[in-house]
Write a structure and sequence with these properties.
heterodimer, A: 180 residues, Nuclear Transport Factor 2, Chain: A, five-stranded antiparallel β-sheet, 5 strands, globular, disordered C terminus, B: 259 residues, alpha+beta, seven-stranded antiparallel β-sheet, 7 strands
């Protein structure tokens, strides 16, 4: 009977570990191959929002910049939309000039570096988080095929129940903090 | 049998705690996290209500950003440098003496992207830096507008030789934090995006290090032929100025100022 109870416990632990998100700081590698209809994001946490944003961002294709733009706007707060609108041209310049097509994106880690919440006078909760996303992107352009690392901190906020993009931060900022 | 069972259960519990519940190991968030948490705090507290309001204010104009910075850092515990009483345009700078205006130039604050398909992105913050020469022909540059000062500090991180004080220290700390680079042809343009969380970032990071009053007046640098650069940042009249850099007597002046 005792042995049976023990086995049940082990089995239960195994099941729970299989269903859980495990350690939220580091998630297993997942490769995303671009598709015609990207999956709608479940932006329920800063990690999932940041992951979705970086995946969508990296999956750019010079043939359909409008699709890319629409997706980025979709994942953004109003401020995030402003950010993109102000930077679309600059960011897409090389993509278009070199006929760049992303082949795959693999996200290696999604780490919440900081998260804070506030409640305003009307009792509305607002949260913001800095999330670091690392991984790799494979893309091709008129200069060949590339396999480069992604190392992008970004700011996300939860204003209306969904975590959304606010803006990119400098990757170099992290080096400064590490040294400090 | 009992001992084995206890050991197995203990191991399982430890594994369950770290793996299934996802409890991070000690020290997993390190010093980066605390600095970033400060930034998050500021991001949310600046508005007094919501991130959205904060962002809206900061994006509205540099002066709004300036005000937000002043409010947030009004209680900074330390100060750096001496007073620059009259700001850009004045003809006498502390520790330098009379200077002659030679022109100005503008820069945009550009941030690199961490996704390699793309280039940089533009904060939309454009700085005007005024240039001068002193009586010995040494170059002096000054940016007094708060965002200009901030931007200038970001883009001039390599001038300092000792990196210990004044603008040099400021520039290095901020430069390390954001590593902004400048370009005069960035296409930031009118009405460009003005949100600058890096500002919050940098100022919170440096809050305890005496850089909280950067916004008070502005910055200037003083570049001599030996490469020594003096600089000051402050709005505090009560603070004694930094000692001036020792200058060798120099023959007169040179030419080329950026305009």
């Amino acid at each position: 009977m005792r042995v049976l109870r023990f086995l049940v416990l082990v089995l239960w632990l195994g099941l729970v570990s299989g269903c859980s998100g495990a350690n939220p700081l580091v998630r297993p590698t997942a490769t995303v191959v671009p598709t015609a209809t990207p999956t709608t994001a479940r932006l329920t946490s800063p990690e999932s929002a940041a992951r979705e944003v970086i995946q969508a961002m990296a999956l750019v294709n010079y043939r359909d910049p409008q699709v890319w733009k629409t997706k980025m706007l979709e994942l953004s707060t109003n401020e995030g939309k402003q950010f993109w609108q102000a930077n679309f041209d600059r960011m897409l310049a090389d993509v278009l000039a070199h006929k760049r097509v992303a082949e795959s994106v693999s996200i290696e880690t999604v780490t919440v570096l900081g998260q804070e919440s506030r409640t305003d006078s009307q009792n509305r909760a607002t949260s913001a988080a800095v999330v670091l996303v690392t991984g790799r992107v494979v893309y091709a352009d008129d200069r060949g095929r590339h396999d480069d690392p992604i190392n992008q901190p970004l700011l996300v906020a939860n204003l209306d129940g969904q975590w959304k993009f606010v803006m990119l931060l400098s990757p170099d900022a992290l080096q400064g903090y590490t040294r400090r | 049998m009992k001992i084995i069972r206890t050991i197995v259960l203990t191991v399982l519990c430890v594994w369950f705690w770290f793996t299934v519940l996802g409890v991070p190991p000690l020290g997993a968030q390190g010093p980066q996290a605390s600095a970033l948490n400060s930034a998050m705090n500021a991001l949310l507290s600046l508005s007094g209500s919501s991130t959205q309001a904060y962002v809206a204010r900061i994006s509205a104009s540099p002066s709004q950003a300036w005000n937000a910075g002043v409010v947030t850092f009004a209680n900074a515990p330390q100060l750096i440098g001496g007073l620059i009483p009259n700001g850009v345009g004045q003809v006498t700078l502390p520790n330098i003496g009379p200077v002659i205006p030679t022109g100005s130039y503008t820069q945009d604050l550009i941030i690199p992207s961490g996704v390699p398909l793309f280039g940089n992105w533009n904060t939309g913050i454009r700085t005007t830096v005024n240039t001068y020469v002193d009586l010995y022909g040494n170059r002096v540059e000054a940016a007094v507008d708060p965002l200009a000062a901030f931007n200038y500090a970001l883009t001039h991180t390599n001038y300092d030789t000792n990196q210990q004080s004044g603008l040099a220290f400021l520039a290095n700390v901020l430069g390390q934090s954001l590593s902004g680079s400048s370009s005069s042809a960035s296409g930031g343009g009118e009405g460009a995006y003005r949100l600058d969380p890096g500002l919050v970032f940098a100022f919170n990071t440096n809050y305890g290090q005496g850089l909280g009053t950067l916004f008070g007046v502005g910055v200037y640098v003083y570049e001599t032929p030996t490469g020594v650069v003096g600089g000051q940042v402050s709005d505090n009249p009560g603070e004694p100025p930094l000692a001036p850099p020792s200058l060798p007597p120099l023959p007169v002046p040179t030419s080329s100022e950026e305009v």
